[in-house]
Amino acid sequence: MSELTVQVFGYGAEVGHIEVSKEAYTWWKKTNEEDEDALVSYLNSWELSDYEGPEVPKEAEFLRREEGSKVYWADSENLIDQYWQQTADCSSVKIEVDGKSVFAEDNTSPKFSDVVIGDADDTNNKDIAMSYTRSPYTHESFKDAVYVITFESSEKGMFIDSATNIDSDFDKSKLVFYVEEDWSGNGTIAGVDYNGEDFDTTSEPEDTVGKGIYAHVWKSGEE
């Protein structure tokens, strides 16, 4: 029995989607176009007194708790989904069997796009298969949400660090990366499995450095 380790590192983000009213969408869309920092401050502040921006009308207070106070974005009762994602195009991979890289000795951490392809037919045994899906919105709430505000904390570091035991020699054709198209159209790494067994990729990354916080106002569907 051998230990197979998969690490994926590079750029990614913590993402949260919040459903808001049409009134909140309209006000914040205009405000965000004029001052991008205002919405970031509103989302990222724990108390209304910490918010730095124009006065928010009552109909736009989508994080309102009671008069004169608010909740943190992740505690919103209208939170659609919250998750970590890693951008495939900005990632590198490290794959080892019992501590030894499966790649060339002079490049043990190649770019994701250099070794992961979209074709499961691994004819030369040099590339790893990728399964690509264009169904990013699996969360049921997205089916009803029309107006959405998204929080995005950009991070750099290790997003996947997982290991599993394998009973036989490592076979690249049995390793599959699953990539999804996210809400903004970027390909993100959604999972990894070997011989049909999933690696644990659900844990919150522990070794990342913040690179910036962004907020987006957009429409997910139609009224």
Give the topology.
Layout: E1 2-19, H1 22-34, H2 36-44, E2 64-66, E3 69-70, E4 79-97, E5 100-101, H3 112-115, E6 116-117, E7 128-133, E8 147-166, E9 175-181, E10 187-194, E11 197-198, E12 207-219
Parallel strand pairs: 6-7, 7-9
Antiparallel strand pairs: 1-4, 1-8, 2-3, 4-5, 4-10, 8-12, 9-10, 10-11
Properties at a glance:
mainly beta; 3 helices; 223 residues; 2 domains
Description:
By secondary structure, this protein is mainly β. Helix content is 12%, strand content 46%. The chain contains three helices and twelve strands; from the N terminus they run βααββββαβββββββ. It has helices at residues 22-34, 36-44, 112-115; strands at residues 2-19, 64-66, 69-70, 79-97, 100-101, 116-117, 128-133, 147-166, 175-181, 187-194, 197-198, 207-219. The strands form two sheets. Strands 1, 4, 5, 6, 7, 8, 9, 10, 11 and 12 form a ten-stranded mixed sheet that branches. The chain has a two-stranded antiparallel sheet with strand order 2-3. α1 (22-34) crosses α2 (36-44). The model is unreliable at 122-126 and 134-138 (pLDDT under 50).
Average of per-residue pLDDT values? 85
How would you classify the helix and strand content by structural class? mainly beta
Helix content bin: 10-25%
**Beta-strand content:** over 45%
Helix-strand string: EHHEEEEHEEEEEEE
Shape annotation? elongated
| Number of strand elements | 12
Number of domains: 2
Spatial separation of the terminal alpha carbons: 56 Å
Give the C-alpha Rg. Answer: 21 Å
The total count of helices amounts to 3
What about the largest sheet?
10 strands, mixed
Low-confidence segments? 122-126, 134-138
